[in-house]
Amino acid sequence: MxxxxxxxxxxxxxxxxxQDQSDRLLADHQDLMVSHFGAFSQNLVTTLSxxxxxxxxxxxxxxxVVKRMFSILIEGLQNLRIHGELDESGHQTGFLIxxxxxxxxQLHLANIVxxxxxxxxTVYTNSINEYTAIELKELxxxxxxNEFLSIKGGAGLGLILTRIKSGNPLNFQFVDLDExxxxxxxxITLDRA
Length: 193
What we know:
Strands 1-2-3-5-4 form a 5-stranded antiparallel beta sheet, with helices on both faces. It starts with 5 loop residues before the first helix and ends with a strand. It is of the alpha+beta class. 50% of the residues lie in helices and 22% in strands. Helix 3 (63-83) runs antiparallel to helix 6 (157-166).
């Protein structure tokens, strides 16, 4: 059997994590609505967003819940597309899983991040989780008005907006992929009522 190169090992580890997340959601009696493993093009972001919106409308969700999910989904998918790191083969691999039950939606997003950035991402996400709704809105306005943008075009607004729209803390973890890269797993819960 041929030996796998580092890129194949990384992709295999991400696929394994994707499968583990899917299996866990099914074991928790969640309905898997939409999932994707691989790269996220702008066309795919648009298609997934529209598909989820249509599914939620068909299920009879309140308009406000549909709008919140649409915003969260767009932010999350754009984050995967814009901020996901590339593996050694130049591929940007990540995944999305959207599940639901009678009370809530759970959105699982994952993308490659550089290990050297995981500590600052942890501190930032934990701080967002500690803010009240009023503090989050003030932070969002402050960041927006200061117009600070990172090299890749973001100002951390996506996580702030996601936290505001979901009304719930952002759960996250890191999975080691190799010496330089980790998989950033983000779980967002949106209540259906």
